[in-house]
Structures are given as C-alpha cells and as structure tokens.
Specification:
- The chain is globular.
- It is α+β, with helices and mostly antiparallel strands.
- The chain has one domain: 2-Layer Sandwich (Zincin-like), CATH 3.30.2010.
- It contains 6 helices and 3 strands, in the order ααβαββααα.
- Helix 1 packs across helix 5.
C-alpha cells in the first residue's frame, strides 16, 4: 500500500482526465469528475458491492446511449474516483498513477454506455 497527499491524488485524477482520447473527451458533456477517500454506504449499495470488495470508481448518471430526445436540464452525471482503495492496490506511486488513469477511463466508458463486460473486452494492454 502506498499513500499520497490529497493534492497529489487530485493531480493524478486530473492527469487521468487529460489522458482521455480527444474523440471521447470532446463528446463529454454535463459530467463532473471528482474523488473521495472511499465509497460511502449508498455508493457501495448502488454498486451492489459485496462486503470485502473494493470499489475504485463509480459512474452515477444517465449513459449517453440512454439519453433520449427529452434529455435536458438534468443534473450533471458524476464520476467519483476512490483514493483509499486505489492506494491499497498500488505497489508504488507510478503504479497508483496508472491505476487512477485506468479507473478514470473505465468510468468514462460507462458514461458512453459501455458495460463492465464490454470495457474488459476492449481493455488496452
């Protein structure tokens, strides 16, 4: 396990956002990306997370593929990246930065309507 300052973790999340390919980044709208120490009770429930399982990130919103003609005036979708679970998995700071980047990308893929199974099938090496 590694621990980094909140400022360093926030910078890693920002770098993860910056690493999103332009063809996706340019189509992201009405979405907030934030981070938290760990998921709260309701986030764990929403993710249907069993006890002892880690939640690295969570997308909350309406995926672009489900937005119909009447989608307007909605609150922003939200992506939360969870610091403590990622720190638990990281071997070192460089590994943590990669985990954060991959988690940001994973949650952005949910914003574009991809399921966990589809994301894993398309996962970069």
């Amino acid at each position: 396990m590694i621990e980094v300052t909140d400022a360093k973790f926030e910078a890693m999340v920002a770098a993860g956002i910056d690493a999103i390919p332009e063809q996706f980044a340019s189509k992201m709208a009405n979405i907030a990306v934030t981070w938290a120490e760990a998921p709260d009770f309701w986030q764990r429930m929403k993710a249907r997370l069993s006890p002892g399982r880690l939640l690295l990130g969570l997308y909350e919103g309406v995926p672009k593929t489900r937005r119909g003609n009447y989608y307007s005036g909605a609150l922003p979708d939200k992506i939360t990246i969870f610091k403590r679970p990622l720190e638990l998995l990281a071997a070192d700071e460089q590994h943590l930065a990669k985990l954060v980047r991959d988690t940001v990308w994973h949650e952005v893929a949910h914003h574009f309507g991809l399921s966990d199974r589809e994301i894993q099938a398309r996962q970069r090496p």
